[in-house]
Amino acid sequence: MDYDTILQGKYPAKRHAQRVTEYIRSKVPNASGVLYLESRMTKLLEDNDEPEPFRQRRFFYYLTGCPLADSHVVYDMDSSKLTLFIPPIDPESVIWAGLPVSAEEAKANWDVDEVRYTNDVNATLAHIGSEKTNSTVFAIPNQVLEKVTFLEFDHKNFSILKEAIEVSRVVKDEFELAMIAKANAISAKAHHAVMENVKHAQNERELEAVFLAECIGKGAPKQAYHGIFASGRAAATLHYVHNNAPLAGKLNLLLDAGCEWDCYASDITRTFPINGKFTKESRAIYDIVYKMQLDCIAALKEGVLWDDIHLLAHKIAIDGLLELGILRGGKDEILANRTSVAFFPHGLGHYLGMDTHDTGGNPNYADKDTLFRFLRVRGTLPAGSVVTVEPGIYFCRFIIEPYLKNPAHAKFIDADVLEKYWDVGGVRIEDNIVITKDGSENLTTTIKDPDEMERIIGSS
């Protein structure tokens, strides 16, 4: 994908507003009025005169592409007019922070019809509301400032807009895919930089610093999530956050990290040997996970049921663990008994977009079936959606030991063979995949071939 060329255009805010309006009208026939949204507002740290780190509100960004704080947007559903309201110049603030974006600059930067200043919000809403009969203002609860009024509108709907945007966000257009691809490209360079430095590092935090430096240097200082730099047995902790352990004596590093590009996320995981050479046990587990990922990606296309792809991953894991002798017995019995969940306890992936765990997945965490309980996506996949495919096999005592104590599961696990694999920790491989009509496109360019990773680390 030539993402740099695509990103020379504008974020398609008006197309998103139209898509959201279509969804609302499918639920509320003949809906008329406005969509109203606010950005995140500037807020000071508690007991401090510095502002909190700013993260743009995703619902607002979806209808504007605007990264500014303290802003508002109004979309007239009938005229299709999109109006952005940005903060006016505060002379005292200019002394400290410089001139803000002007209305003229904002109009040139973003896909909106008009730009006004925020002191015009109430007057504009009152004018639109008074002109329309049987009009409705659609907004999101707890995301409207007290000073904003909707008095001139006949109806106020605080129930459908959030849902409409969440559903609309699932299918990405070309510009959104280009932003995810750009984030992936930068994150790939950062992953490779860690591979090149891992053999010489002493502590996980040094590798986190390498990753962040590469992202910042490429213009992507914001991370999509708190990165995981888990060495040795810590790789069996799915969302390990400490990133401060020494590397000495550890076999592998599980690196799960990705930057944002203009509010759009990447989410990439690689697992590789710290000293440049997989042990026999580590390579065996890596090869199973690698096959899980490649076969699952090959099965993806528009309309597939995500549950079935997740099930495929478990079947491959069971075959591999049986071959190694970690599991024993009949593979159909092992699957029916859900014993493989001890080694692959999480879902295969999730939607990706402005949030790492993006909207629209319809998870069911109350599912009594442990194989599917933690799936963040349920149902069929539409073309244009982006999913992560991130199978893993983990050796976590806290998870596995209860299975060993349960006769229903213990009969399928060879504890003596298992003993050789605890130091592997965990292996996960994760790519970001666009679903297409006939297959998929992989946006992740990070190296995952085990021989190539060994070559990079070994030659560094």
TrEMBL record:
Principal EC category: hydrolase
GO aspect biological process, one term: proteolysis
Annotated ranges, domain Aminopeptidase P N-terminal: 11-145
EC number: 3.4.11.9
Cofactor names: Mn(2+)
GO molecular function annotation: manganese ion binding; metalloaminopeptidase activity
Alphabetic keyword roster: Aminopeptidase, Hydrolase, Manganese, Metal-binding, Metalloprotease, Protease
Highest taxon listed in the record's lineage: Eukaryota
Keyword Methyltransferase appears in the UniProt entry: no
Catalytic activity: Release of any N-terminal amino acid, including proline, that is linked to proline, even from a dipeptide or tripeptide
One family name in Pfam for this protein: Peptidase_M24
Similarity comment: Belongs to the peptidase M24B family.
Protein name: Xaa-Pro aminopeptidase
Classification of source organism: Eukaryota, Fungi, Dikarya, Ascomycota, Pezizomycotina
